[in-house]
Amino acid sequence: MKLMAALMIVAVLGFSIGGCHCKVVQFIFGDSLSDVGNNKYLSKTLANANLPWYGIDFGNGLPNGRFTNGRTVADIIGDKMGLPRPPAFMDPSLTEDVILANGVNYASGGAGILNETGGLFIQRFSLYKQIELFQGTQDLIVSKIGQAASDKFFQDGRYVVALGSNDFINNYLMPVYSDSWTYNDQTFMTYLMDTLGAQLRLLHSLGARQLIVFGLGPMGCIPLQRVLSTTGACQDKTNKLALSFNQATSNLVNQLSSKLPNASYRFGDAYDVVNNVITNPHKYGFNNSDSPCCSFGKIRPALTCVPVSVLCKDRSKYVFWDEYHPSDSANELIANVMIRKLFSNNGNNGPSPAPAIAPSPAA
Ligand SMILES: *[C@@H]1O[C@H](CO)[C@@H](O)[C@H](O)[C@H]1NC(C)=O
Ligand SMILES: *[C@@H]1O[C@H](CO)[C@@H](O)[C@H](O)[C@H]1NC(C)=O
Ligand SMILES: *[C@@H]1O[C@H](CO)[C@@H](O)[C@H](O)[C@H]1NC(C)=O
């Protein structure tokens, strides 16, 4: 316990490396589930949460770029590990000092692992683009604190990679995208894993050592998918794709973690629990698991959380905030499950802050 407390203090106060008073910070790569405001600054993007009622349960309640009413899963996991919340890469107040103190979040609504995913949104940062932006960040930091201190800073960082749902929902499963007729379930998964594997290796070559990859939830049960069937049931095919993505990604991540020098790469998902919540919401304190809290009457499917939308009475009782994204309460549950799974080797009583600073715990 004492050691853990000491480690926490180190994480919070930071420590000196090669003349750099560097803290442990996060670098987040993702899609709308992790976006904290990048798309706000992409003037042509159609994936934008910069309007009411997004953000209604966050800070001053004004839209902040998050695609939910409150916190994202990455917000909650970072908070529980005692790490600062990294600002959006596009935030105009982002300076070298801000980066050294808080890290950077590159996540962008509509993004995928694949470059071509989410093309209909016109503008978004796909994962390769996000990694390119990260390289730009590294150049800035090198010129600020020098190569040696910079190398240490980036190797001590915590990395999150959380994409994949758009590669299905806004690519493979949508006939307007050529990937949908070029591939079948199996060849598409291979293509995705080859691409993700190359991206994770690239991140390792850039210094990422402690990295978490998030899996997918039962994305066939998002309201947007349910309205595709006459009965409003979950799309079984879509859920099966999510499960096989999770299995393949888990294998990939474990493989890389054992192969790449000094890498502690972990995979975490909350598929099973979210699936249970959706089947049996009351058991988990929810009252609705099939429709969005923020909706625009019967005009569906569409991304219909807009200023004229009507909100549900109790936002904490809805699993889904809009047609696509979980609510703050659902995100909290997802984050807790993921922490338990990711760090279960550290004990059995729930979230432990230790992994935030522990060097490569056994997987
Ligand atoms: C993906 O996009 C990046 C730029 O963001 C580019 O450098 C790369 O060549 C592209 N990869 C493929 C396979 O198209
Ligand atoms: C791995 O860690 C050791 C000890 O910290 C270090 O000397 C070595 O350079 C690291 N290798 C890589 C590839 O990060
Ligand atoms: C839950 O939903 C039912 C109707 O579906 C309603 O009667 C009840 O008041 C709701 N409870 C809460 C706490 O919102």
Summary tags:
disordered C terminus; binds 2-acetamido-2-deoxy-beta-D-glucopyranose; lipid metabolism; 363 residues; signal; hydrolase; hydrolase activity, acting on ester bonds; SGNH_hydro_sf; 12 helices; five-stranded parallel sheet; alpha/beta
Radius of gyration from CA coordinates: 20 Å
Q: How many domains?
A: 1
Oligomer state equals single chain
Q: How confident is the prediction overall: mean pLDDT?
A: 90
Provide the CATH top-level class.
Alpha Beta
Strand content: 5-15%
- Approximate helicity band: 25-40%
Task: Measure the end-to-end span.
Answer: 21 Å
Shape: globular
What is the succession of H and E elements?
HEEEHHEHHEHHHEHHEHEEEEH
Small molecules held by this entry: 2-acetamido-2-deoxy-beta-D-glucopyranose
Walk me through the structure.
- The protein has 363 residues and is α/β, with parallel strands linked by helices.
- It has one domain (24-348): SGNH hydrolase (Rossmann fold).
- Helix content is 39%, strand content 11%.
- It is built from 12 helices and 11 strands.
- The strands form 4 sheets. It has a 5-stranded parallel sheet, sandwiched between helices. Strands 1-2 form a two-stranded antiparallel ribbon. A two-stranded parallel ribbon has the order 8-11.
- It is globular, with a radius of gyration of 20 Å.
Topology:
Elements: H1 2-13, E1 15-17, E2 20-22, E3 26-30, H2 73-80, H3 96-102, E4 103-105, H4 127-145, H5 147-156, E5 158-162, H6 165-172, H7 179-182, H8 185-205, E6 210-214, H9 223-226, H10 236-259, E7 264-268, H11 271-279, E8 288-292, E9 294-295, E10 310-311, E11 318-320, H12 328-342
Parallel strand pairs: 3-4, 3-5, 5-6, 6-7, 8-11
Antiparallel strand pairs: 1-2, 9-10
Helix pairs in contact: 2-12, 4-5, 8-10
Bound molecules: 2-acetamido-2-deoxy-beta-D-glucopyranose (3 copies).
The site of one 2-acetamido-2-deoxy-beta-D-glucopyranose has 2 residues, from loops.
